[in-house]
Amino acid sequence: MTKIFLSPSDQTWNSYSGVSTNESAQCVKIANACKKYLEMNGYSVMVGSPSRGYTGRVVDSNSWGADLHIPIHTNAGGGDGTLVMTYSGSVNNPYVRSIYNEVAQVSPGNDDGIRANNSLYEIMQTSAVCVYVECEFHDNSTLAQWIANNTDTLGKAIAKGVCFAEGKAFKDTAQSVTPPASLGTLYKVQCGAYAKKSNADNLASNLEKCGFDCYIYRASDGLYKVQCGAFSKKENADRQVQAIKAKGFSAYAYKE
After folding, report:
1. Whole-model pTM above 0.70?
2. Are the beta carbons of 74 and 26 closer than 8 angstroms?
């Protein structure tokens, strides 16, 4: 049985636009909804306390022996859509992909993809695979209201993602949903491929200076490749490609 640690945001200071609430309050609701659905499907679940802070929740997750660690946040900064972050070596992990796909499907904004992030504490310090979920943007009043009205929907989507990653049907009190035939198509954005890792490192550094999240992986052909995101919708991958090209770099999207 997979042990899942849910880590809702403790950021009470992040107020919602146009709604009298905050990030922590809504993420606790999402986490509690997710726990309800995961337990219906046979998982052992622990919800971390916001009062513990993210460092304390990492300690609790590791001490409990979690198999999967899921921080739950809502986003800000003028965008929209779902973003999932994880360790660079976990971008193609089935839990990462499946949770992202399910949350992105219910979120009203344009999805923001799966991004490698090796700087966030919860991603780097948890023993379990970490799937860091940003559920829509709360600095947009329309989207903030949508989050507040759909905490159960978001919690259910995360739980579905866990089930589907294992090929399990998702059950709730109303229905049983068969997992998709695959974890879903991802459109990946590639910016370069090099025989020398130092060249890939240089490109990644320059891209990051321009505000793009990217990671380096070594492909089966031995080349070091620089990737800047993975998206469930082709139009969002194409948008990323155009933004990268506008900064003078080469990029293209391909379907996995």
Report:
1. yes
2. yes
Non-local CB neighbours of 15 within 8 Å, separated by 6+ positions: 21, 22
Please give the angle made by the CA atoms of 47, 170 and 188, to the nearest 5 degrees: 85
- 213 contacts 197 by C-beta, under 8 angstroms: no
141-167 per-position pLDDT tens digit: 999 999 999 999 999 999 999 999 998
Cross-strand pairs, 226: 192, 216
Residue 211 has pLDDT above 90, yes or no: no
Residues 6+ apart with CB under 8 A from 170: 37, 41, 159, 160, 163, 164, 176, 177, 179
Q: Where are the beta strands (DSSP E) in the chain?
A: 3-8, 44-47, 68-75, 83-86, 113-116, 129-130, 132-137, 170-171, 176-177, 187-194, 215-218, 224-231, 252-255
Q: Running DSSP on this structure, what letter comes out for residue 231?
A: E
What does the block give as tokens for 12?
């009470």
What pLDDT does 185 receive?
A: 75
